[in-house]
Amino acid sequence: MPTTGTFSSLTKMYIFGVHFTDDGYGISGVVTWSCPCLQDLELHTIEGPKVLFLVSQSILSLRLIRILDLERLVVEASKLTEMQVVKCFALTTEPTSMVLSLPALEQLHWQDSSPGEIDYLSLPSQILKLSLIELPASYLVLCEGHRSHFTRILQIFQRIGTLHLEMPVAPVSD
Fold it and tell me: Which residues pair with 64 in a beta bridge?
């Protein structure tokens, strides 16, 4: 990837509380084509993107938190070591999908429902830290058909250094 672009020296990008009107194609294009040195990307409480297509040779850390309309996530990042996904797919009633190519992934924090279709193009067989946090059933009641992610993600990795699981327990009624 060339070392020139609109934001050719930008290494960190944090976007909070923005509403995009282009279904996510603009931010996808900026990250993929205009930020050749971007290492750290966080999108937090974002409305509008139905698709995030992020391709980067430089990104090391990606945090996606409350992408309110997300239906499709594609991430191809050969150096990415840390990824966090929190309440993105659980907030849509549309069919969802995800494609990941993250051969250097070391840490994954997943606090979301599982996308309907998942394609892992390239992931390591072992990971240093895996955090899986199940969303409470009351959170998912608005989005019928959303599934737990635990077994789908656990089956990906043959070896996990540190595993952190959180599962809500329904209160027992008397």
Answer: 43, 85
Beta-bridge partners for 166: 133
Strand, coil or helix: 4 = coil
Give CA–CA dist 130/161, Å, rounded. Answer: 8
Q: Is the dihedral of CA 140, 142, 145, 146 positive or negative?
A: negative
Task: Report pLDDT digits (tens) over 92-117.
Answer: 778 889 999 999 999 999 998 878 88
> Please, what's the largest Cα pairwise distance for the chain?
65
164 strand-pairing partners? 131
Measured in whole angstroms, the distance separating CA 120 from the mean position of its chain's CA atoms is 13
pLDDT in tens, 55-76: 999 999 999 999 988 999 999 9
* Domain residue extents for the chain: 12-166
Q: Record the pTM.
A: 0.86
- 48 sits in the region (left: phi over 0; alpha: psi -120 to 50; else beta) called left
Q: What would the two tokens of residue 8 be? A: 């050719």
